[in-house]
Design a protein that fits this description.
The protein is mainly α. 49% of the residues lie in helices and 3% in strands. Helix 10 runs antiparallel to helix 11 and helix 12 packs parallel to helix 14. The chain starts with a helix and ends in a 5-residue tail after the last helix.
C-alpha cells in the first residue's frame, strides 16, 4: 500500500507545472471533436489538425459501424450521425468507404435523423442537413421578457443560457453554412410525422407568446432589440482567450451566431474563439482530443489537497497556493442576479474561466488552502471571501446547486428539447450538497446545529432513495451521490446510528462486486436507476471506500476487500475499466473520463486507510480499547 501511495504521488508530481498547477486531460464525449473538426474545416485551413482529430475519431468507431459514449453502450445514434458527418465533410472518408457504409446501415436501422438528439439536429441544421422548421423554436423576444413572465430568459440555468443565446440567434435566422463540400445527409432523413407537443409544453409556449404580446414597442424595433441583446449577452461573457464561458460547445454555437449577425468568417471574435478552442486540445492514447473545458483548477485544487494529506505530504505549497489564489474570481458573474449583496469569491473549472464560478470548484479550492489560512492574513481573507460566497449559494430548499441559486423553474422541464430538465435547471443535488457540508463541517468547522447545516441535512434525508442511495448529478451516479452524501453527513456529526446513514452504508455494501470493488454503468444516468457495470473502476471503488471509512472510522471486512481490489485495479492501467467515464454532463449525450480521477480518489482513500490503520495500531500499543 505504501508503494502504491509513492507510485501515485510520483506520477502526480510528474504532471506538476512551474506555476503550481496540474493539467490532466478532461476526456469527454466525441461531440467536442466533431464540433472542432467542423469549425476548422469551415473557418480555417488547418488541415493537419483536422486530420489528427479525424484520425482519433475514426479510431473510436466500433467494428459494427457505430460510435458509442462508453464501453457498455451498444451504440449511440447521435454520436454516429455526428461522426459520419464530420468525417465526410473533412474528406477523411467518402460515402463509398466501408466504415461509412457500416455506419449508414446503423443510422437507418435506428430511425435516422428523426431520432437523433436535439443538439445533433441543430448542428446538422447549421449545415443545411436538417430542416430548421422541424426544430422547436423559442422566439428571440424571450430575452426581453421581465422576470414576472411565465418564463423568462434568466429563468434558465447559467450553462443553459450560455448555449441558448447563440442557438436562439441561429434558429431565428435559419442560418446555414454555404459550402459545396458539405455532405448530403438527406438519405438519413427518414420521413415521420413530428410528435405532437404535450400539454405542459404547449402551456409553456403559450405563456411565452402571450407575454411577448404584452411587450410595448414597434415590432421591428423589438425584434432588433432582442437579437442585439442576445448578441451582447454572448460578447459580454467571452473570456480573454476568446471562448464563451470556456466551453467548447457554447463557443461552437456562438461562432455561427456571430456569422448569423453578419460577422465575417475572418472577424477577430471568430478567429480568436477558434484559437482559444485550440488550447483545449489534449493528447490521449488514440490522438488529440478537444476538451469541452480544461479542468486545471479542479484538478489542481483536488490534487493539492490530497498530496498534503498525511502520512506523506509532498507538494510545493507556495506555488500551488499562489496559483489557486490567482484563480479566485473577482468579477461579478450572472450568479449576482439572485445575490446582489454578495461579493465575488468563487472559483471556476478552467484557468480561462473568470466569471462563471461554481460551488464544487470553490469548495475544492477552499479545502486546499484552508490549512494555511490561520497563519496567513491574505489567505485568511481569500478563504473568508470564498466561504461567504459558498454559503450564500445555498438554495432556499436547503441544498446546493452548481452555478446559481434557485434556478428551479418547474416549467423549464417541458422545453421541447432532449434533456431539458438537466440543461435548463440548476437544482440542489446530493453530490453538491454532500460535498459542501463535508467542507463546511471538516474544514470550516460548522456545527450540526448551524441552521444552514440543519437545512442541508434535512434536504439530504428528504431526497434519499428508498433503497438508501442518493442520485448524483455530475458523476456516475448513485455511487457518486451516495459517497458525497455520506461523507458530508459524517463530517457534520451523523453516525451509523442515524437511519439515513445506516441505510446508505447498507446500500453501498450490498452492491460491492465479487472482486471487492465497485462499478456503476453510465446507463444509471440515462435510466435514473442504479445499473451495475459488472466490473470495478478505480474512482468508483475509491468513492465507496471513502464513504465507508468516513462513517465506520475503523476497518471492516468490506473495507479490507475494497482496498485489496483498489490496489489490483491500479495495476491494470490498460484495462477498459481504468478509462471508463465516471463524470456526467448530459444524460445520453455527454460523459467524462477525468484522467486525474485515477490518481486523486485512490490516493485520498489509501492515505485515509493508512491513517486509520496507524490510529488503530497506536491505540493497541497504548492499551486503548478500539
Amino acid at each position: 500500500m505504501n508503494q502504491a501511495v509513492d507510485k501515485l504521488t510520483n506520477e502526480i508530481n510528474a504532471h506538476l507545472n512551474a506555476d503550481g498547477s496540474f493539467h490532466f486531460c478532461f476526456e469527454n464525449s466525441l461531440e467536442t471533436d466533431v464540433k472542432m473538426i467542423l469549425l476548422l474545416k469551415t473557418f480555417t485551413e488547418d488541415n493537419l489538425l483536422i486530420q489528427q482529430l479525424c484520425s482519433r475519431l475514426a479510431a473510436l468507431q466500433h467494428k459494427d459501424g457505430y460510435w458509442k459514449l462508453y464501453e457498455d453502450d451498444n451504440g449511440n445514434l447521435s454520436a454516429t450521425i455526428e461522426a459520419v458527418f464530420a468525417l465526410l465533410y473533412a474528406g477523411y472518408y467518402t460515402k463509398k468507404s466501408p466504415e461509412i457504409k457500416k455506419a449508414s446501415d446503423y443510422i437507418k436501422l435506428k430511425g435516422g435523423l428523426t431520432n437523433a438528439h436535439s443538439l445533433t439536429k441543430i448542428t446538422l441544421a447549421l449545415y443545411g442537413q436538417y430542416p430548421w422548421l422541424n426544430l422547436m423554436h423559442l422566439p428571440v423576444y424571450i430575452i426581453l421578457l421581465p422576470p414576472k413572465s411565465p418564463l423568462s430568459f434568466y429563468d434558465f440555468s447559467s450553462y443553459g443560457r450560455i448555449h441558448l443565446a447563440p442557438i436562439l440567434l441561429v434558429s431565428d435566422s435559419r442560418y446555414t453554412v454555404k459550402d459545396t463540400k458539405i455532405p448530403d445527409m438527406s438519405p438519413f432523413l427518414l420521413q415521420r410525422d413530428l410528435a405532437p407537443l404535450d400539454r405542459n409544453t404547449r402551456t409553456l409556449l403559450l405563456g411565452v407568446y402571450q407575454s411577448i404580446k404584452a411587450l410595448i414597442g414597434l415590432p421591428q424595433q423589438l425584434y432588433q432589440s432582442a437579437r442585439q441583446r442576445l448578441l451582447l449577452y454572448m460578447l459580454q461573457r467571452t473570456e480573454s482567450d476568446g471562448t464563451l464561458y470556456s466551453y467548447t460547445t457554447a463557443t461552437f454555437y456562438m461562432i455561427y451566431a456571430l456569422r448569423s449577425a453578419g460577422y465575417s468568417k475572418h472577424h477577430p471574435s471568430i478567429q480568436n474563439a477558434i484559437n482559444g478552442l485550440k488550447t483545449h486540445l489534449c493528447r490521449t492514447q488514440k490522438g488529440y482530443h478537444t476538451q469541452n473545458s480544461p479542468s486545471a483548477v479542479w484538478d489542481t485544487a483536488l490534487l493539492m489537497y490530497v498530496l498534503q494529506m498525511p502520512p506523506s505530504p509532498s507538494y510545493d505549497l507556495n506555488a500551488g497556493v499562489h496559483y489557486l489564489l490567482n484563480q479566485q474570481h473577482s468579477y461579478y458573474g450572472d450568479w449576482m442576479m439572485n445575490l446582489p449583496s454578495v461579493s465575488p469569491g468563487g472559483w471556476g473549472f478552467s484557468t480561462s474561466n473568470s466569471i462563471h464560478p461554481d460551488v464544487d470548484d470553490t469548495t475544492a479550492a477552499l479545502r486546499a488552502i484552508s490549512p494555511y489560512a490561520s497563519s496567513n492574513p491574505v489567505i485568511q481573507d481569500r478563504f473568508v471571501r470564498g466561504l461567504n460566497w459558498v454559503t450564500a449559494m445555498q438554495n432556499d430548499d436547503g441544498g446546493w446547486p452548481a452555478f446559481e441559486k434557485d434556478k428551479t423553474h418547474p416549467l423549464l422541464s417541458y422545453v421541447p428539447m432532449d434533456g431539458a430538465a438537466h440543461a435548463s435547471l440548476d437544482p440542489s443535488t446530493a453530490d453538491l450538497t454532500g460535498r459542501t457540508i463535508e467542507f463546511l463541517g471538516h474544514h470550516a468547522k460548522f456545527p450540526k446545529t448551524d441552521p444552514r447545516i440543519h437545512k442541508a441535512i434535512q434536504w439530504l434525508k428528504k431526497h434519499q432513495e428508498p433503497d438508501g442511495s442518493w442520485y448524483g448529478r455530475w458523476g456516475i451516479s448513485y455511487i457518486y451521490g451516495t459517497w458525497s452524501a455520506l461523507t458530508g453527513l459524517s463530517a457534520v456529526g451523523l453516525s451509523t446510528g442515524d437511519p439515513c446513514v445506516h441505510n446508505g452504508i447498507q446500500w453501498l455494501e450490498s452492491i460491492q462486486n465479487k472482486d471487492g470493488g465497485w462499478g456503476e454503468s453510465c446507463l444509471s444516468d440515462e435510466k435514473e436507476q442504479y445499473i451495475p457495470l459488472k466490473a470495478s473502476t478505480p474512482s468508483q471503488t475509491a468513492w465507496a471506500l471513502d464513504a465507508l471509512i468516513s462513517v465506520h472510522k475503523q476497518k471492516t471486512p468490506t473495507i479490507e476487500r475494497g482496498i485489496d481490489s483498489l490496489l489490483n485495479q491500479l495495476e491494470e492501467e490498460t484495462a477498459w475499466t481504468y478509462q471508463y467515464p465516471t463524470g456526467a454532463g448530459l444524460p445520453g449525450k455527454f460523459y467524462v473520463y477525468y484522467h486525474s480521477y485515477n490518481y486523486i480518489w485512490p490516493l485520498l482513500v489509501l492515505k485515509k486507510y493508512l491513517a486509520l490503520v496507524g490510529t488503530v495500531n497506536e491505540e493497541k500499543q497504548q492499551g486503548t480499547p478500539g
